[in-house]
Design a protein that fits this description.
Blueprint lengths: L1 H17 L6 H17 L4 H15 L5 H17 L15 H18 L13 H11 L6 E3 L10 E5 H11 L1 H9 L10 E2 L4 E5 L11 E11 L2 E9 L7 E9 L9 E8 L10 H11 L4 H15 L15 H15 L6 H8 L5 E4 L8 E2 L10 E6 H12 L28 E3 L3 E6 L10 E7 L5 E8 L11 E10 L8 E3 L7
Antiparallel strand pairs: 1-2, 2-4, 3-4, 5-6, 6-7, 7-8, 9-10, 9-11, 11-13, 12-13, 14-15, 15-16, 16-17
Amino acid sequence: MKANRFLAVLLCTAALLSGCGTTSPGSSGSADASQGESDASKPLSELDQLAQQVRTWEEAGSYDDAAAYRDALMRTAALVQAESRGAYLCDDPQELDEDKLAALTDAAMRCNYSYSMYKDEDPFSPKNLPATIAMLILYTPGTLETAWGEDPTLPQGWYQRVKLEELQPYLDGAVAPAGQAFRSHPQDLTAWNWYPAEDGDIYVNVSGYTATLPTGEPQLTSVEPLGGDRYLVLCEMLPLGATLQHQLAYVVEDTALAGETPHVTVLDCVSAARRDSCTLNWDEIEALRTTYRVFGEDGQEAAELLERLEALSPIPFHTNLADQMSPAMELALDEAKLTREMIPTPTFESYVISLSVSPTMHRPEYSQENEWVPAEPGRGTYGDEWNRIPAGELEAAFQKRFGIDLSANNRTWMNDPDFILTDYYTGAPMVSYDGEFYDVYLRGVGGPIPFPYKTTLVYNYDDTYTATFIMDTTEYFPDSNSTYEVLTLQLRNVGTEENPFFHLLGYELPA
């Protein structure tokens, strides 16, 4: 955009100079005034309008309208996103056509074999590069022609025979850092126990890698365009055998020519497995995003403006806030987690149990309808019994925790057999409402298993939080292939900073 403005100034100057011999001083002044009026009346672009608003807030030291601030954040983020569209753009990777999905899945496998094998070491260092290349050749050869090689003159071992002249192009197209590292390596490959063969072939020593089982099945979760032909891909490596499920984030570039089968080259990757973790943190993903994003000038201006907007927020974005939480925030988050864990299926019964609203009366299932017993003060609901709960209290609890209005649509949800527990013999709903109380039958339900867990909490542009709980299940299920479970919640704080309360987003009554 700056270049466009500069070009406009040059064109304007050239026009004025070309007419300086025929235009009177008076008419020149009129032209200048006319040009000034034209520039002043020209409508500002959306980006310029946003920049003007941000300058006002920066000069004031803060924003004065939270709704306007959120709107500016979302609009600017949309402008950034608009600069980053491409052929692999999708809401769900499974919606991609078969060839594109296969290309991104192959790239995930290449990443897993090259980046997940090492902990704190560089997979492309002179020490590790031979093993990295061997794994790529064995398990993700792509277009590289390979064959088991046999030669009685070679030391005993397992070898893969490839054409040396094809190895460099293969690595460049498979994992770019591997190609760069191989290009800079001295050509004496015997130090790696690689041996030349006739016709320009070479025996690649793969001893010790042939028994290595695949360490996961990739399941793509998101594809984010970074501009040009680059994409940031997130995926879960699902466990096979006794391996650990973990996340990968990798950047690829679409290198296929028009009409060719889709192919992407890996530019970089981070793997949670390198630090024996299940999930990546935001900083790791954001580093890939900012390093490899390719913008035009307008996109770069939008990205810089978005950073300035983020700086105005009292709560930092894209940061794990879990280690900075107050005790009150920790308690509120733990209560939200427990509420969600008490809802294995979205039924009215599960909702009521999770809220633990105190009834005023209770009675066993097969007792007479008038045999109500006063409830113990401060106690939650009674299992395998009828619970009489004040309507106002239950409706307020539903509204506060889930944003659900129980009075909506004349309470037609009470007639939904999938949402309301029904009597096994009569089919009658196990809930009633008399205008003052809800009488609800609740089965006895145990609490969730108290797995030890780690938490991440990230603040979003729309004033919501994303909380992730990574629960270690090893102690309870030692023979399971997966050693952890992940629970992700979308939340909004409807309390205060001193007394927070998290509203669980995404819950609603049946239509």
